[in-house]
């Protein structure tokens, strides 16, 4: 059992700056075998709490007891506690130490000074649990993020912890892979009695947990079952959180008179059950209307397809291939025979599972690399021509790269945002205006942020600064490479609104790459689905959604609304599943059910 | 073209299951040190010719394409040539020299030319041996072998285990940092920076735009990794010790290789002594 | 972990903590990258040797921020690396390639620890200069002692370059050490260096 009693923790230097403590007067008990989810906005103290539990930080007031050992006792106890409390941190790259998978998993047991045979047994066991045996001798740097995440978990499991803390393990992976990981973890709790503490920004992940703890500004705001917590929608939204979409849908439907629904709907299955009870009436009737119903459903609204031929394409790719590290024994084909056309002023989504080649393609589109073979035209000009300068592409295309950390390179925000204008020798006054406009466009107060150190920014702020830096270039094309990763719900909503606003600017082309359809579907006009470096298909959002089975096979996560609709399909055969957002889903649900009744 | 990862692959372990790749890293390290010492000592063409014979056998055992090894040598050729010219010009003959050409401290002698050719041959052999070691040995094996071989030093208070951990951490960070530098260069190019222009001052400031973020990212990672390692019970307090999962096994081939290498060393030293006398 | 000392390099300088091991590892990785990635470790100069190296910067920084032990380890790794990568014959000699490098971190640390009470930036600049100078002086001495070059040849060749190297090292060390302490203190706002209307932001 873990007991936290009135713990307060303050990063020492914070005091000097009048910042409230990272954790304030926290009290909490976690029993063995329990599955606990912790949610809270960026900076609410979740990661700090995990460090307190693992005896890495010692609270300044109050106490933390792990299996009746105090974390502040010192001596050997600390090592026992750290052995009992296993932590998987936010970014796998930050915590993997060794170079190969097997060495990495053995690292913990080795530190415990166990005999060799015992280490071998534990490593084997951990690899089995996480299905890593085939990768045992692989180099960690060659693994995908989701595999790295699994290795990190295995490394902790090999220490045989009683409490497993996972700090946002699913921010870097998506779709099916993430769900698989979660179910593995829950199995651990149920079969081996390990308590699981899961920190996340995704509400739908935690509905099956025993307990949900909501943190806000270093305090515990709520602590209860998922149903209890998600009943308090307004309070959650007030602290920048949200409830799963299906809970929202449930509420709307209850308000519309679906009294069979439970107070708080947590899973699509619960919706389905109550639909079934409505559905008691004869199925024959349903089948009867089925044909007409399908055709009666309004055809997808006309997407822009007219007039496209007339305009010259911005990018045209024909049979483009790209090989990383060509000419070495480690060569790797990232793009093959790719054909793609992007017109100016459009909003385009590039969707594909990890390793599909999205980032590689973006490097080509931004003029940072040249294709290994194939044709690449920019505004109708062949980029392979001798006279063509890649700087011509670069001056018109702005990129917000996958990890914002590595695209901010100046000391202060002002210097960083003004980097582009300075390179172009824009006059100072004009440059100041551009910096101010760009910062304000991304919602950062200019006066406050212009002198901030870039090292002191939070993840969400960094992403905004990165976008501001691109806006200050006044590009014609902006490319976003998975911009939402690691943001809390409020951050995601704000960024979403920002991109939506950019889309309204005339003449701006937006390219948005992501491994899930979630945000793409509402932002873009055309979606290109990539897999293993080639184009699988292109289409409007609605056309894309209609191919749900294919997408699932590619491990591309569907938007929540479509997922819910698909889950209800067996109960409501007339339900149209290609729904773009919640409002549409609710409308369809009401429509489908009123037809049934 | 901004692609850095390719440079880091040169000199990387090629896991092809060859006898050399399977050899015990301790034996391999001892052999490599012996051979490197040997080539630094040799000073006659006859001995080097025999050495070449030995390297042919070695190469057969490694099953690595000779083309790949030579290709990785290509960038150095120009340096080698420059170094050759310098060597010849600055050669200081021991006795009254037979100048072919002479001016101030510069001069050309036959002796100088022969000597410089010898050094080039020596450098080529050294380079080849070092490359062979890194092509056939994974870094993990290498650090393991070093740790075991250097274990006696730990007893006299030199922190070998900590030093090996430094290497392990460095190996972990190299690919991460390379990716980061590559991304930084891309981000800077995308925002209009041109790397190959400018005077000395501008070049320094451009370089620092890469260097400083690299250090910043390093400083930050220190804190995070420190937490991650401590959470997994890595300590540096008195009385704490680690065990190892990896065990090294001396096989018959290792003993054979070691004996053969010592034998070759003795023969070559003998030949060298005979010829130079 | 929670009690970060105000001055990491001067508290118990010779003990090896986990944090110091990691710092040494990170700096070793940076040294290796500066050596391996083309053009990253060099600044091209218009002179005989052709370029000023900055590969010793991580070693200097290691000595300054984490004490002599880290300086020593970084220097050793730097030395071994330049030994293995060397294409010119005289750098295939350990007394030229490795031995001198062991002292870079030590002198940089000693300079910094001695001057830090007066002013940290000054101490860092001096440490950078002394560290780079240690490198040049010891390598050149080794070259002369081992008889690769006569003194009157080598000294004029490297003189200008080594002064530039030392100045670059001093500047970079000041910047990097300052950033290290900004991170350590978690400062948020930078002071403006010029009047507003002369800044591009
Ligand atoms: N090493 C540190 N030193 C000083 N302050 C810190 C440190 N780490 C975090 N903080 C501060 O403590 C507060 C809580 O941070 P914490 O990392 O626990 O938040 P979090 O809930 O995990 O956020 P996120 O969702 O972004 O991961 C924040 O205000 C943060 O700025
Ligand atoms: N610099 C590189 N060197 C070598 N291989 C690379 C490099 N960058 C990417 N790859 C490989 O190329 C393939 C495509 O990678 P890419 O990053 O383009 O995929 P992605 O669709 O962006 O994936 P993710 O969603 O994970 O970002 C992957 O197999 C990847 O391992
Ligand atoms: Mg966190
Ligand atoms: Mg990507």
TrEMBL record, chain A:
<keyword id="KW-1003">Cell membrane</keyword>
<protein>
    <submittedName>
        <fullName>ABC transporter ATP-binding protein</fullName>
    </submittedName>
</protein>
<dbReference type="GO" id="GO:0042626">
    <property type="term" value="F:ATPase-coupled transmembrane transporter activity"/>
</dbReference>
<dbReference type="GO" id="GO:0043190">
    <property type="term" value="C:ATP-binding cassette (ABC) transporter complex"/>
</dbReference>
<dbReference type="InterPro" id="IPR003439">
    <property type="entry name" value="ABC_transporter-like_ATP-bd"/>
</dbReference>
<keyword id="KW-1278">Translocase</keyword>
<dbReference type="InterPro" id="IPR050095">
    <property type="entry name" value="ECF_ABC_transporter_ATP-bd"/>
</dbReference>
<dbReference type="InterPro" id="IPR017871">
    <property type="entry name" value="ABC_transporter-like_CS"/>
</dbReference>
<comment type="similarity">
    <text>Belongs to the ABC transporter superfamily.</text>
</comment>
<dbReference type="GO" id="GO:0005524">
    <property type="term" value="F:ATP binding"/>
</dbReference>
<feature type="domain" description="ABC transporter">
    <location>
        <begin position="315"/>
        <end position="557"/>
    </location>
</feature>
<keyword id="KW-0813">Transport</keyword>
<feature type="domain" description="ABC transporter">
    <location>
        <begin position="2"/>
        <end position="242"/>
    </location>
</feature>
<keyword id="KW-0472">Membrane</keyword>
<dbReference type="GO" id="GO:0016887">
    <property type="term" value="F:ATP hydrolysis activity"/>
</dbReference>
Automatic annotation (TrEMBL), chain B:
<feature type="transmembrane region" description="Helical">
    <location>
        <begin position="156"/>
        <end position="179"/>
    </location>
</feature>
<dbReference type="InterPro" id="IPR003339">
    <property type="entry name" value="ABC/ECF_trnsptr_transmembrane"/>
</dbReference>
<feature type="transmembrane region" description="Helical">
    <location>
        <begin position="73"/>
        <end position="92"/>
    </location>
</feature>
<keyword id="KW-0472">Membrane</keyword>
<feature type="transmembrane region" description="Helical">
    <location>
        <begin position="29"/>
        <end position="61"/>
    </location>
</feature>
<dbReference type="Pfam" id="PF02361">
    <property type="entry name" value="CbiQ"/>
</dbReference>
<feature type="transmembrane region" description="Helical">
    <location>
        <begin position="255"/>
        <end position="275"/>
    </location>
</feature>
<keyword id="KW-1133">Transmembrane helix</keyword>
<protein>
    <submittedName>
        <fullName>Energy-coupling factor transporter transmembrane protein EcfT</fullName>
    </submittedName>
</protein>
<keyword id="KW-0812">Transmembrane</keyword>
<dbReference type="GO" id="GO:0005886">
    <property type="term" value="C:plasma membrane"/>
</dbReference>
<feature type="transmembrane region" description="Helical">
    <location>
        <begin position="113"/>
        <end position="136"/>
    </location>
</feature>
Automatic annotation (TrEMBL), chain C:
<dbReference type="InterPro" id="IPR024529">
    <property type="entry name" value="ECF_trnsprt_substrate-spec"/>
</dbReference>
<keyword id="KW-0812">Transmembrane</keyword>
<feature type="transmembrane region" description="Helical">
    <location>
        <begin position="122"/>
        <end position="145"/>
    </location>
</feature>
<keyword id="KW-0472">Membrane</keyword>
<feature type="transmembrane region" description="Helical">
    <location>
        <begin position="60"/>
        <end position="84"/>
    </location>
</feature>
<dbReference type="GO" id="GO:0022857">
    <property type="term" value="F:transmembrane transporter activity"/>
</dbReference>
<protein>
    <recommendedName>
        <fullName>ECF transporter S component</fullName>
    </recommendedName>
</protein>
<feature type="transmembrane region" description="Helical">
    <location>
        <begin position="157"/>
        <end position="183"/>
    </location>
</feature>
<feature type="transmembrane region" description="Helical">
    <location>
        <begin position="96"/>
        <end position="116"/>
    </location>
</feature>
<dbReference type="Pfam" id="PF12822">
    <property type="entry name" value="ECF_trnsprt"/>
</dbReference>
<keyword id="KW-1133">Transmembrane helix</keyword>
<feature type="transmembrane region" description="Helical">
    <location>
        <begin position="21"/>
        <end position="40"/>
    </location>
</feature>
């Amino acid at each position: 059992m873990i007991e936290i009693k009135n713990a307060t923790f303050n990063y020492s230097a914070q005091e000097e700056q009048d910042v409230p403590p990272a954790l304030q007067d926290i009290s909490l008990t976690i029993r063995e075998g329990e599955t606990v989810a912790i949610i809270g906005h960026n900076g609410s103290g979740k990661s700090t709490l995990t460090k307190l539990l693992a005896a890495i930080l010692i609270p300044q007031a109050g106490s933390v007891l792990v299996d009746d050992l105090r974390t502040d006792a010192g001596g050997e106890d600390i090592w026992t506690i750290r052995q009992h409390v296993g932590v998987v941190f936010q970014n796998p790259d930050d915590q993997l130490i060794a170079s190969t998978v097997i060495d990495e998993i053995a690292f913990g047991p080795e530190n415990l000074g166990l005999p060799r045979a015992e280490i071998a047994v534990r490593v084997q066991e951990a690899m089995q649990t996480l299905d890593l045996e085939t990768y045992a001798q692989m180099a960690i740097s060659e693994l995908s993020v989701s595999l790295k995440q699994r290795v990190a978990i295995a490394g902790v499991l090999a220490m045989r912890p009683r409490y497993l803390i996972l700090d946002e393990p699913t921010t870097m992976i998506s779709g099916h892979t993430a769900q698989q990981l979660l179910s593995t973890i829950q199995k651990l709790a149920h079969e081996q009695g390990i308590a699981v503490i899961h920190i996340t920004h995704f509400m739908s992940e935690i509905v099956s947990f025993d307990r949900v703890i909501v943190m806000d500004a270093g305090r515990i705001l709520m602590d209860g079952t998922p149903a209890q917590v998600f009943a308090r929608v307004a309070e959650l939204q007030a602290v920048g959180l949200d409830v799963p979409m299906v809970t929202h849908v449930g509420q709307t439907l209850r308000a519309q008179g679906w009294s069979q629904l439970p107070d708080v709907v947590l899973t699509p299955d619960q919706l389905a059950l109550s639909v079934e009870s409505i559905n008691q009436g004869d199925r024959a009737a349903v089948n009867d209307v089925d044909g007409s119903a399908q055709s009666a459903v309004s055809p997808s609204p006309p997407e822009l397809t007219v007039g496209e031929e007339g305009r010259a394409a911005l990018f045209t790719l024909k049979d483009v291939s790209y090989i990383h590290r060509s000419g070495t024994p480690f060569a790797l084909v990232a793009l093959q025979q790719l054909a793609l056309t992007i017109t100016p002023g459009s909003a385009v989504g590039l969707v594909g599972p990890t390793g599909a080649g999205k980032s590689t393609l973006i490097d080509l589109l931004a003029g940072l690399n040249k294709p290994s073979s194939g044709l690449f035209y920019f505004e109708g000009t062949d980029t392979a021509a001798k006279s063509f300068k890649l700087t011509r592409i670069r001056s018109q295309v702005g990129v917000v790269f996958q990890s914002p950390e590595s695209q901010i390179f100046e000391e202060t925000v002002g210097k960083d945002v003004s980097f582009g204008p300075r390179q172009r020798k824009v006059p100072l006054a004009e440059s100041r205006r551009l910096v101010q406009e760009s910062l304000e466009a991304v919602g950062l107060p200019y006066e406050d942020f212009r002198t901030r150190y870039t090292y002191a920014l939070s993840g969400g702020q960094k992403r905004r600064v990165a976008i501001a830096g691109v806006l200050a270039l006044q590009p014609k094309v902006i490319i976003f490479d998975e911009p939402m990763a690691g943001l809390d719900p409020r951050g995601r909503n704000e960024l979403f609104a920002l991109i939506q606003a950019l889309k309204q600017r005339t003449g701006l082309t937006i390219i948005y790459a992501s491994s899930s359809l979630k945000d793409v579907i509402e932002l873009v006009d055309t979606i290109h689905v990539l897999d293993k470096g080639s184009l699988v298909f292109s289409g409007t959002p609605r056309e894309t959604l209609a191919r749900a089975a294919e997408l699932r096979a590619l491990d591309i996560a569907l938007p929540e609304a479509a997922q819910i609709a698909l889950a209800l399909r067996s109960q409501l055969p007339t339900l149209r599943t290609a729904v773009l957002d919640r409002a549409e889903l609710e409308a369809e649900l009401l429509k489908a059910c009123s037809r049934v009744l | 073209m901004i692609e850095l990862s390719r440079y880091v692959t040169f000199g990387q372990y090629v896991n092809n299951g060859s006898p050399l790749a399977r050899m015990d890293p301790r034996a391999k390290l001892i052999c490599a040190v012996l051979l490197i010492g040997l080539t630094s000592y040799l000073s006659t063409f006859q001995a080097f010719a025999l050495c070449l014979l030995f390297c042919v056998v070695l190469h057969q055992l490694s099953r690595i394409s000779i083309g790949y090894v030579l290709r990785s040598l290509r960038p150095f050729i120009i340096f080698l040539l420059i170094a050759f010219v310098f060597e010849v010009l600055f050669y200081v003959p021991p006795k009254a020299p037979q100048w072919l050409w002479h001016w101030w401290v510069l001069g050309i002698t036959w002796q100088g030319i022969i000597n410089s050719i010898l050094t080039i041959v020596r450098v080529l052999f050294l380079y080849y041996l070092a490359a062979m070691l890194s092509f056939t040995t994974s870094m993990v094996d290498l650090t393991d072998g070093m740790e075991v071989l250097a274990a006696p030093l730990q007893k006299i208070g030199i922190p070998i285990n900590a030093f090996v951990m430094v290497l392990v951490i460095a190996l972990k960070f190299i690919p991460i940092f390379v990716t980061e530098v590559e991304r930084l260069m891309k981000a800077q190019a995308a925002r209009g920076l041109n790397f190959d222009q400018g005077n000395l001052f501008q070049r320094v400031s451009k370089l620092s735009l890469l260097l400083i973020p690299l250090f910043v990212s390093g400083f930050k990672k220190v804190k995070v990794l420190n937490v991650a390692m401590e959470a997994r019970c890595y300590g540096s307090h008195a009385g704490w010790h680690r065990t190892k999962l990896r065990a090294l096994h001396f096989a018959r081939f290792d003993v054979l290789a070691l004996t053969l290498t010592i034998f070759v060393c003795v023969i070559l030293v003998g030949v060298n002594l005979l010829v130079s006398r | 972990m929670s009690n970060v000392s105000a001055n990491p390099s001067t508290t118990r300088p010779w003990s090896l903590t986990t944090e110091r091991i990691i710092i040494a590892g990170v700096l070793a990785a940076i040294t290796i990258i500066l050596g391996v990635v083309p053009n990253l470790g060099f600044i091209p100069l218009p002179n005989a040797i052709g370029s000023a190296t900055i590969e010793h910067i991580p070693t200097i920084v290691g000595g300054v921020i984490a004490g002599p032990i880290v300086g020593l380890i970084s220097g050793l790794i730097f030395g071994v690396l330049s030994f293995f990568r060397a294409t010119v014959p005289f750098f295939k000699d350990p007394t030229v390639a490795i031995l001198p490098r062991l002292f870079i971190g030590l002198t940089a640390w000693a300079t910094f620890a001695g001057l830090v009470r007066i002013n940290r930036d000054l101490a860092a600049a001096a440490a950078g200069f002394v560290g780079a100078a240690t490198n040049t002086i010891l390598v050149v001495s080794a070259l002369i002692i081992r008889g690769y070059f006569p003194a009157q040849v080598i000294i004029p060749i490297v003189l200008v370059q080594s002064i530039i190297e030392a100045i670059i090292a001093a500047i970079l060390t000041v910047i990097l050490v300052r950033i290290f302490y900004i991170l350590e203190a978690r400062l948020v706002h930078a002071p403006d260096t010029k009047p507003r209307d002369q800044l591009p932001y």
